[in-house]
Design a protein that fits this description.
The protein has about 375 residues and is an alpha/beta fold. The protein contains 9 helices and 20 strands.
Length: about 375
């Protein structure tokens, strides 16, 4: 009878245990489903996923100075940019934070954007900063020190720069005299950087770790000079998206002015994804007479390799360039005409999901004499 009682007890209690487990499993499934739904709703509403290993940097110069349309952004345009950044699911971060995360191969929020302003014009202080401060948007100001020291009209002064820095803006270098850096000898480059670094140390108490090359002009000799001067990050003026495998001494930025300052371009640029490449030729974008036009090429890495039939590259005049593919991932572009003296750019784009584009750009510089 005792055995029968035990058997009867087991028969009675097993359904109770099974019922508890069933309820628990149902609760777990409901919780997971709600989490999944909430995550997808957030992605849908904000257009933001949880992490990415890339970021976009915007570049500005003047604000509300309509007499300089090629470097100016109208205030109505800039207000629209700020509204888009605040409401479009973008994460605006300081440049030093962005680059530090990517250098350590750490993720950033998807659609991370950095804001940079070159030349320290007075309109930055009077027009742009009040708007950025009100929106609590971080930015970096790149300063060429000679214009400030000479108190040139239309430029900020050191007191105003200190005020921005004390508020939270980051300060970067743009050399002393804002020269065409690739045209300088290594000795002159070193003196240029030493002079500006000394002025930053005297006025702000530190030497910047970031530099924006004047006019975006860059060469391998310039890279060696800024490395020797202690800089860790360098920015050009070519379009593209920063990623963890990038050359951190020649990072891209999307430039905005009155002509190229519409909200549509803001969204296009801020939504952009990196077109990851390696083995870029020529390695030096400073062209001699013998290397102009350049034998431009690169090897695409990652998932974009599977979509290379959709890749397009464009000349400075917007003309689509003829692309030659070598194997699965190598891209070569040959141009019949030489680049003119000065700056020329090539932009390559590849469509991605939901209207986003992968982007890789390169700026070349040809001296007036045709050779270094």
């Amino acid at each position: 009878m005792l055995v029968n009682v035990k058997k009867s007890y087991k028969r009675l209690t097993l359904p109770k245990i099974s019922l508890k487990m069933t309820v628990l499993l149902m609760l777990i499934r409901i919780l997971l489903a709600k989490t999944f739904i909430l995550a997808n709703v957030l992605v849908f509403l904000t257009g933001t996923s949880f992490a990415a290993s890339s970021a976009v940097v915007f570049m500005y110069h003047r604000f509300g100075e309509t007499q300089y349309p090629s470097t100016n952004i109208r205030l109505d345009q800039f207000k629209a940019h700020i509204k888009t950044l605040l409401t479009g699911g973008f994460a605006v971060k300081h440049l030093d934070h962005i680059t530090a995360q990517l250098l350590q191969d750490r993720n950033l929020p998807d659609k991370t954007v950095g804001l940079s302003i070159d030349d320290a014009y007075l309109s930055v202080y009077r027009n742009a900063w009040p708007l950025l401060r009100s929106a609590n948007l971080p930015f970096t100001l790149f300063v060429a020190t000679d214009a400030i020291d000479k108190k040139l009209p239309g430029y900020m002064n050191w007191d105003q720069i200190r005020e921005l820095y004390q508020w939270g803006a980051r300060i970067g270098s743009q050399t002393a005299s804002h020269p065409h850096m690739p045209l300088l000898s290594p000795q002159k480059m070193a003196k240029e950087l030493e002079k500006s670094n000394n002025r930053f140390k005297a006025e702000l108490g530190f030497v910047p770790s970031m530099i924006a090359y004047p006019y975006g002009e860059y060469s391998l000799a310039v890279k060696r000079a800024v490395q020797k001067a202690g800089f860790r990050i360098g920015f050009g003026q070519h379009s593209g998206v920063i990623h963890s495998q990038d050359d951190f001494f020649y990072l891209p930025r999307f430039a905005f002015n009155e002509t190229f300052g519409g909200v549509e371009r803001v969204r296009l640029a801020a939504d952009a994804l990196p077109l990851r490449v390696r083995d870029i030729t020529p390695s030096d974008p400073f062209l001699s007479a013998d290397s102009n036009p350049p034998a431009f090429g690169f090897t695409v890495t990652g998932g974009a390799m599977k979509k290379l039939d959709q890749l397009n590259c464009y000349a400075p005049n917007g003309r689509r360039l003829r692309i030659e593919r070598l194997g699965e991932s190598r891209v070569e572009i040959r141009m019949a005409k030489k680049f003119p003296a000065g700056r020329s750019r090539i932009n390559c784009t590849l469509p991605e999901k939901v209207g986003r584009w992968r982007w890789f750009g390169r700026q070349f510089f040809v001296s007036r004499e045709g050779s270094p």
